[in-house]
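re: that complex we talked abt at group meeting.

here r the seqs, copy pasted straight from the sheet so there may be weird spacing, ignore it
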Amino acid sequence: MKFYSTNHTISPTDLLTVLTRGLAPDGGLFIPAKIPTLSKKFLKALDKQSLIDIGHTIAREFLAGIPTVKLKSILQDSLNFPIPLRQLDKNLFVLELFHGPTLAFKDVGARFLARLLSYYLQQTNQTINIIVATSGDTGSAVASGFYKVPGVHVYILYPHKRVSRLQEQQLTTYGNNIHAFAIKGSFDDCQRLAKALLNNPKLQTKKNLSSANSINFGRLLPQSFYYFHAIAELHRLGIFESPVVVVPSGNFGNLVAGLMAKKMGLPIKQFIAATNRNNVVPQFLKTGKFKPRPSHQTISNAMDVGNPSNFARLVELYKHSLLAIRRDIIGTSISEALTKQTIKKIYQHYNYTIDPHTAVGIAAAWHYQKQRGTSHPIVVLSTAHPAKFKDTLEPILHQKISLPSALKQVLKKKKHVLLLPANEQIVQQQLLN
Ligand SMILES: *Cc1c(COP(=O)(O)O)cnc(C)c1O
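got the structure back, here u go
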């Protein structure tokens, strides 16, 4: 499988380059030259296949040359937690993607990327240093995913005193090959430093640097698996109608993974791209104009994105045809007030606690049902465990939310962290040590 850049100015390249570079050298995003169509036989028998089986069939199409036994073990290590489909109503389902070690769907992509990268690095006797700037969640999924993975060191840059206590514990208590730098500055400072380090040619040759955010295709591929798994679960319940799938979106990596699944032949009627008030993509769907702007802060903070990085992939998948994009994707932007109301209603009606990101998705599903009726099955992707957003949810629900035992353990662990100024020279020195 060859990959090209959405900027179209480099020649097609191989997977190892895609995984190690993250971003294409011309500044575009890597995208597969051809999305394979899966066999009718496979699609008909989804209900007989586990998530690992599904992942294996799909991954094989993209990752030729990797031995079957190795691929199976990468899949088993990455997807070592359940992804249940919970039925709320006759036609409303929630796919719980948050049972991984850091309690958000980002575990799926980060764990798979880490293991795949480690395999290729061992084949070529390389080591790699990953730099990741984080406002909280991405860093913990990447740290957990890459912890003790051979051949990889991870450097996490996070803003000092600007992440939650739980997040800080999740970032700083690994040790071993995970190095946490608390930067005296904002998230933007961290991102600026990470970019400067990644673009520093001297450092690049000395340390073989890479990035692990959602521009890396290695994170998107495994996210397509659970769309197939959701349909398999519906089939097991005797539901064969193609569902509408709601994706709570920020950088739009998760949605792009779903669009790829549909291109591979998965019967999905339509996607709803659900955003908070950061509605650049819903606005694009309405007006045909893509206008990035600075983000607003909301309670669904992992979706506070004003310039979604995967937009280039989204339009490329449809050869820039607005008509075709509109056929497959509906955009819905949900206000802060409606998000809170949805959290409350879901708790009252179903005795079920959802996090703010999932609430944006459910509010978008209800909006769809109001306009078009309730006769189609709808699957909402649930992207984070409610306990991660305890401080936001408790005042809305007037209810205590208990931490899962894994998180309680993290709070007791000792921190390993270096406090550094937002200065490229000084951070660079630490990387070289
Ligand atoms: C990252 C994240 C999202 C947004 O996912 P994208 O792939 O960036 O669109 C939604 N919910 C949660 C909890 C997240 O951490």
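couple things i noticed - The longest strand covers residues 152-159. The pocket of pyridoxal-5'-phosphate is lined by residues 104, 106, 137, 214, 248-254, 302-303, 357, 383-384 (CB under 6 Å).
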